[in-house]
Amino acid sequence: DLRWEGVAALGPRRGPIRTGGTVLSRLQSNIFIVNGDWEEGQVVGWAAGAGTTLTINTAVVRAGNYSGQAVVAQSTVAGIIFSQTVANPTVYRSRSITIIAYLRRASGSDAGCFLRLDDGTTQTDSAAITTDAWTYRSVTATIAAGATTITISINTNATTTNAAHTFRMDDCYLIPAG
């Protein structure tokens, strides 16, 4: 019944799902993952990996006003830089999903980063990037029929032996098939 104000929604939500953050997003990216475009202006939804400091960057962004920035300490072993666990993973069981993101390595020279989709059974990785330019990466996988968790992560592919490394990510989205 459209006679009453506030009853119908005519498009994607443009405001924040949570409170406390500044949302300048073009469209709400929180439909499938939290703060995938980083436009909440805070590190909501993402968890830093070992040896990593995760912050917001406003100087180097792909789109919008913010990007995620991870500084990985020198001598940190290859692994997760930052990650997010997808809510309601059981709805994706036996379905194909694609994760897309734009990545870049802003400093450091002996480790690159890549995008990973992990359903607890299988890990699917993108190719690594080592350039200081926004680089599109995607992974597509069919989620295991018994999956109880789905994790999206940005990982390093080598130990950061010569110096701290800085990696950035922007515009990360989950796209379910169908």
Cα distance, first to last residue? Answer: 29 Å
Pairing-aware structural class of the strands and helices?
Answer: mainly beta
Biggest sheet: strand arrangement: 1-4-9-6-7
Radius of gyration: 17 Å
Largest sheet features: 5 strands, antiparallel
Query: How much beta, percentage-wise?
Result: 35-45%
The helix/strand series, from N terminus to C terminus, equals: EEEEEEEEEE
Tag the structure with descriptive keywords.
mainly beta, globular, 10 strands, five-stranded antiparallel β-sheet, 38% strand, 178 residues
Describe, in plain words, how this protein is organized in 3D.
The strands form two sheets. Strands 1-4-9-6-7 form a five-stranded antiparallel beta sheet, with no helix packed on it. A hairpin with a 4-residue loop joins β6 and β7. Helix content is 0%, strand content 38%. By secondary structure, the chain is mainly beta. About 10% of the residues have low confidence. The chain is built from no helices and ten strands.
Topology:
Blueprint: E1 47-48, E2 52-57, E3 67-72, E4 80-85, E5 96-107, E6 113-118, E7 123-125, E8 135-142, E9 151-156, E10 165-176
Antiparallel strand pairs: 1-4, 2-3, 3-10, 4-9, 5-8, 5-10, 6-7, 6-9
Q: What's the quick description here?
A:
The protein has no helices and 10 strands.
